[in-house]
Amino acid sequence: MTVWHVILIATAATLALKLAGHLVPASFLERERPARIADLLTVALLAALIAVQTLAVGQGLVIDARVPALVVAAALYAVRTPFIVVVAVAAAVAAGIRFFA
Amino acid sequence: MPGPDVDASIRGARRDGIAVGLATAAYGISFGALSVASGLDVWQTCFLSLVMFTGGSQFALVGVIGAGGAAAGGSAIAAAALLGVRNVVYGMRMRPVVSEHGLAHRVAAAWLTIDESTAVALAQDDERAARVGFWVTGLAIFVGWNLTTLLGALIGDALGDTRAYGLDAAAAAAFLGLLWPRLKRVQAGATAVLAAVVATVATPVLAPGLPVLVAAVVAVVVGWFDLFRRREAAG
């Protein structure tokens, strides 16, 4: 599988999901349990991606400059700093630690 | 019957849409740069923003490919698709909001169905303002997101060694920014913590990409049995 294959299949899947909401008769996901799972799925995947992106190097676990960068990012979100500023500061924290370490 | 109040609420919806559009467009720079840092080229990056056009899935796809390359393709597809499931729910809520003008109109509405366009539409008081809010927000973000994605991809391309610029940490911060507004409820917070632990523990034993998918099981279990609800009522 090339990167283009991955992109095309994933794009087809996400577009199909968007269309499904508008075209398929509503019923299943309007029930409480499926709607709750769909909601929590987003939360779980994002949290898992944060963990992997912060701690993993291939299949190893490493604590490095990414950890303090993420802590700073969390503190900034807590005081309602705009997304783009937080992302830039997090990059700067990690880059700064790597430069001086 | 359109009156001065309705006109005012439509103007308000239009203003909301453009403001949200401008704010969201800024994320596009980080997506473009991170995508190129993950090994996609500028064309692939722009294709995702044009056609997939749903930020969470786009970030997830490039995040998994960045960790495992094309070999983690299956996991990357699954992660993007699972993050796109919420758009089904949004689509069902937006169907009565966008007026029915045939198939092309419906496809366009589906394409623009994302977190922000749905949120702005649901925040309006009357039907026409909701419709205006949906379309203005969706179109403003579509234009802005694609322009800034290209800009970010070109910047990422010019940077070279992206780790030295902390772009790996920026990716984690970007995911946290997408997660943050969803953590208002105890159930969501508990799910996030458990999913992060599961993904971390699974990292040394599973191929790159799979830990993220295993963590999705946490959402199914918590959601199915409706766990962590009582403490929420108490707090």
Question: Would you summarize the structure shown here?
Answer:
The complex is a heterodimer of chains A (101) and B (235). With 101 residues, chain A is mainly alpha-helical.
Strand content of chain B: under 5%
Percent in helix of chain A? over 70%
Low-confidence stretches of chain B: none
The total count of helices of chain B amounts to 12
Q: How many alpha or pi helices of chain A?
A: 4
Q: Would you tell me the structural class of the helices and strands of chain A?
A: mainly alpha
- Whole-number average pLDDT of chain B? 89
Largest interface: A-B, 73 and 100 residues
Mean pLDDT of chain A: 91
Helix-strand sequence of chain B: HHHHHHHHHHHH
Keywords (chain A): Membrane, Transmembrane, Transmembrane helix
Pfam families (chain A): AzlD (PF05437)
Protein name (chain A): AzlD domain-containing protein
Transmembrane segments (chain A): 6-28, 40-63, 69-97
List strands and helices in order, with pairings.
The complex is a heterodimer of chains A (101) and B (235).
Chain A: H1 3-23, H2 32-55, E1 56-57, E2 60-61, H3 66-78, H4 83-100
Antiparallel strand pairs in A: 1-2
Helix pairs in contact in A: 3-4
Chain B: H1 4-37, H2 42-52, H3 55-68, H4 73-83, H5 86-94, H6 103-111, H7 115-122, H8 127-159, H9 167-179, H10 186-202, H11 210-225, H12 230-234
Helix pairs in contact in B: 1-2, 1-3, 1-7, 1-8, 1-9, 2-8, 3-4, 3-9, 4-11, 7-8, 10-11
Key structural traits:
heterodimer, A: 101 residues, mainly alpha, 4% strand, extended, B: 235 residues, 2 domains, cell membrane (chain B), Brnchd-chn_aa_trnsp_permease (chain B), Branched-chain amino acid ABC transporter permease (chain B), transport (chain B)
Write structural notes for this entry.
The complex is a heterodimer of chains A (101) and B (235). Chain A is mostly helical. Chain A folds into three domains: 1-26; 31-60; 63-101, no CATH class. Helices cover 75% and strands 4% of the residues of chain A. In chain A, strands 1-2 form a two-stranded antiparallel sheet. In chain A, a hairpin with a 2-residue loop joins strand 1 (56-57) and strand 2 (60-61). The longest helix of chain A is centred in the middle third of the chain and has 24 residues, at 32-55. The mean pLDDT of chain A is 91. Chain B folds into two domains: 4-180, no CATH class; 183-235, no CATH class. Chain B is mostly helical and 235 residues long. Helix content of chain B is 77%, strand content 0%. The longest helix of chain B is centred in the first third of the chain and has 34 residues, at 4-37. Chain B starts with a helix and ends with a helix. The mean pLDDT of chain B is 89. Chain B is built from twelve helices and no strands. Chains A and B meet through helix 1, helix 2, strand 2, helix 3 and helix 4 of A and helix 1, helix 2, helix 3, helix 4 and helix 5 of B.
